[in-house]
Amino acid sequence: MRSVLAALLFRLMTWVAFASGHTAQAQSLGRTEMAEPEGTIGAPGKVDVLPAARDDEIRRRLLDILEATGWFPTFEVAVRDGVVFLSGEAQTAEVRQWAGNLARNTQGVVAVANRMTLLPPSAWDFGSASDGLSQLRQDVLLALPFFFLGVVVLAFSVLASWLVCARPAAC
């Protein structure tokens, strides 16, 4: 009788563990938002059956926000069944990613296809040269204590050699 009770208890415990594991896994899949690298296709965390916002409302809202920033020389937004298609040109990769995140976080959006391209850098853009000069200035400031230490050591060496040679029998 004890073995039958033990077997029933074991089956009950495994059933509860199995059911709670699947429930926890299903709940975590619905709530977890994972950052996906650019260019990869991933499934959305949540898809509404009855969308709260219509496609034209989503498009109008995104167009207004993107236009207000002034970060995009040219851009176009298309929305079909909650899927947002972004196209145009972005000034930097960060701005391009920001536009994709904006679209993802908009109510009623199911997925985002970010087709924005980056503008080529201008021939008159001296940003990298300015960054290089800034780094060089920081390196010089970090090296100054060592330079002064070398000057002090050199001065002591010259002084020591002068004192040694000042005596006529030493030189």
Beta strand count: 4
Task: Characterize the biggest β-sheet.
Answer: 4 strands, mixed
CATH topology of the domain at 55-118, what is it called?
Answer: Histidine-containing Protein, Chain: A
Give the % helix: 55-70%
Strand content: 5-15%
What's the level 1 CATH class of the domain at 55-118?
Alpha Beta
Total number of helical segments?
4
Overall form: elongated
H-E string: HHEEHEEH
Instruction: Compute the separation of the termini in Å.
Output: 110 Å
Estimate the mean pLDDT confidence: 78
Instruction: Please give the radius of gyration in angstroms.
Output: 34 Å
Low-confidence stretches: 22-37
CATH-level-2 architecture of the domain at 55-118: 2-Layer Sandwich
**Could you say which structural class the secondary elements and strand pairing correspond to?**
alpha/beta
